[in-house]
Amino acid sequence: QVQLAESGGGLVEPGDSLRLSCLISGRAGSSPMGYPVGWFRQAPGKEREIVAAINWTGRSTYYADSVKGRFTISMDSTWNTVYLQMNNLEPEDTGIYLCAARRAGRNYYTRAADYDDWGQGTQVTVSS
């Protein structure tokens, strides 16, 4: 079973930066590279939304319009950790950030239903 664990959340002020990490362990299937991974966020009273996604090689990425130019998703060379660098944070970025992995496929995916395994999430609060 694939297991994911997020870390790096916290309380910051507007304009600050945070770096989230998603550690992926366990192996399912026979993928020779990484898994497609997505970062989602869940804000109170709102639906879970995609923030960023990366394909199985780490070379193709997707960003929601609201975070383009501020967030960067990346994958380390072992394909076991996916990062979300968040710069110039805004109060609207507040929420629980969850990473998710898809056990098959080579592209990036933007729907929550496309993913098989999820982490527990890490809280990000942006407030002055």
Topology (SSEs and partners):
Elements: E1 3-7, E2 10-12, E3 18-25, E4 37-42, E5 49-54, E6 61-63, E7 71-75, E8 81-86, E9 95-101, E10 117-118, E11 122-126
Which spans of ≥5 residues are poorly predicted at pLDDT below 50?
none
Largest sheet: 7 strands, mixed
Strand and helix order: EEEEEEEEEEE
Helical proportion, percent range: under 10%
Q: How many β-strand stretches?
A: 11
From the N-terminal CA to the C-terminal CA, the straight-line distance is: 40 Å
Rg to the nearest angstrom? Answer: 14 Å
- The global form is globular
Alpha-beta classification: mainly beta
Count the helices. How many? 0
Strand content: 35-45%
Mean pLDDT: 93
Q: What report would you give on this structure?
A:
The chain is mainly beta. The chain contains no helices and eleven strands. Strands 2, 4, 5, 6, 9, 10 and 11 form a seven-stranded mixed sheet that branches. A four-stranded antiparallel sheet has the order 1-3-8-7, with no helix packed on it. A hairpin with a 5-residue loop joins β7 and β8 (81-86). The model has no long low-confidence stretch (mean pLDDT 93).
In short:
The protein contains no helices and eleven strands.
Give structural attributes.
4-stranded antiparallel beta sheet, 7-stranded mixed beta sheet, mainly beta, 128 residues
